[in-house]
Amino acid sequence: MTLAVIPARGGSKRIPGKNIRHFCGKPIIAYSIEAALNSGVFEQVVVSTDDAAIADVARAAGASVPFMRPAHLSDDHTATVPVIKHAIETLGYDKPDAIVCCIYATAPFMASDDLRAAFQTLKEQPWDYVFPITSFAYPVQRALMRPAGEGGRIDMMDRQQYAVRSQDLVPAFHDVGQFYFGRADAWLNEKPIFLSNSYGLEIPRFRVQDIDDEDDWIRAELIHQALFQSGYVNRRV
Known about the structure:
Spore Coat Polysaccharide Biosynthesis Protein SpsA, Chain A, globular, alpha/beta
């Protein structure tokens, strides 16, 4: 049993109408829906929303909206895990063999190949979660800080790393924020995603872009256009 759940709450503050705003010619949520459908690994691709307009756009893009998300799971403080847990219980995927993927609605760089690779990894190995990661562009061990109230003085976050060669530093990664494959029991037990029994599927940095404000949106559209024109978006590099 495999289920994709795309959380898409209405009422975005920083980017009004973010989940269905047009991105390079179509509603941004359509990219997530299409990637999920094209991956071929899901029995259902469901959008969990409290907003009728989002529901209409989701259905037009090929997803199903079998329920409207309740108000207590639709405010600014609702975390992702309870939303996925609600969908699992509502749709009857609370079974030992069920695999459920949370896919974010604003992930236009997500590739179907990555979804397939993550799904296979979770099927073949005993992880709780599998999700994409990417490397930091600069060694995080050499990060600088400005201590509060000290007139802009610069200091190292970790002075012990000052003389360590870059090639000797442990590579650091961060969550990409596109999707999270997990076993149904992990979601239902609300296990934290970023723990030792999770697997990170590494993807290249050029396919990673947070979209949290207008500047992010403009940058993301420019990158997306360049990737499509070059064909890179259709390759798992």
